[in-house]
Design goal:
One of its GO terms (biological process) is regulation of DNA-templated transcription. It holds the Pfam family DJ-1_PfpI. By secondary structure, this protein is an alpha/beta fold. The chain has 7 helices and 11 strands. α1 (13-23) packs parallel to α5 and α5 (155-167) packs antiparallel against α6 (170-179). The radius of gyration is 16 Å and the shape is globular.
């Protein structure tokens, strides 16, 4: 099973690596980082590079598509090569998915028109401008359409575990969760806007700049 994770300049690292860490544990899965060209692509802060091993035209029919987000998504909303590839790939995938602002690219490709979807809280207005209907949920599924979106950054791990369940079974998903020891116990309970104090929200806005 081919799992395609497209990379682009200024992607958010955990958006790609979180699902990768889960999905690469599926028996017979091959996770392929794909992009406009082969070679290194740098993350949103420029500190981390991941190698794309294939171009879009070399991977036309992945079984699973996981589109990460990052500030770099904004520059790709009119990128014909990427959006055409997403549309064509979706015709053949078992599931087409996104993490964080990766949903903006699914929306720009026309895959979320009129559908509920999620994204990072900082991109809600843009997602709705692109035709989707934002809902404040960690993972949003449209299984008959084979589309799953997840919220900001860390939620990609939750989504990937759900995909393992859908592709295989719950026991295997639980086994993968155990293998990566995914047992969140954060020191603070402020991981969503609903839980965060106003001062925390303001500080988060400063850190995003």
């Amino acid at each position: 099973m081919q799992v395609a994770i497209p990379l682009f300049p200024r992607y958010t690292a955990l958006d790609a690596i979180g699902p990768y860490e889960v999905l690469q544990r599926i028996p017979d899965a091959e996770v392929i980082f794909v992009g406009h060209r082969r070679g290194e692509v740098r993350s949103d802060n420029g500190m981390l590079g991941i190698i794309c091993d294939a171009r879009f035209d070399e991977l036309p029919r992945p079984d699973l598509l996981v589109v990460p987000g990052g500030i770099g998504t904004r520059a790709l909303l009119g990128d014909t090569e990427l959006l055409d590839w997403v549309r064509e790939a979706h015709l053949h995938t078992r599931f087409t998915t996104s993490v964080c602002t990766g949903s903006l690219l699914l929306a720009a490709a026309g895959l979320l028109d009129g559908l509920t979807a999620t994204t990072h809280w900082g991109a809600v207005e843009l997602l709705e401008h692109l035709g989707a209907r934002y809902v404040d949920q960690r993972v949003v599924e449209h299984l008959p359409r084979r589309i799953v979106t997840s919220a900001g950054v860390s939620s990609g791990i939750d989504m990937a575990l759900r995909l393992v369940e859908l592709l295989l079974d719950a026991e295997t998903s639980c086994a993968v969760q155990l293998l990566i020891e995914y047992d969140p116990q954060p020191p603070f309970d402020c991981g969503s806007r609903a839980k965060a104090a106003e001062a925390v929200r303001q500080r988060a806005a400063q850190l995003r700049r």
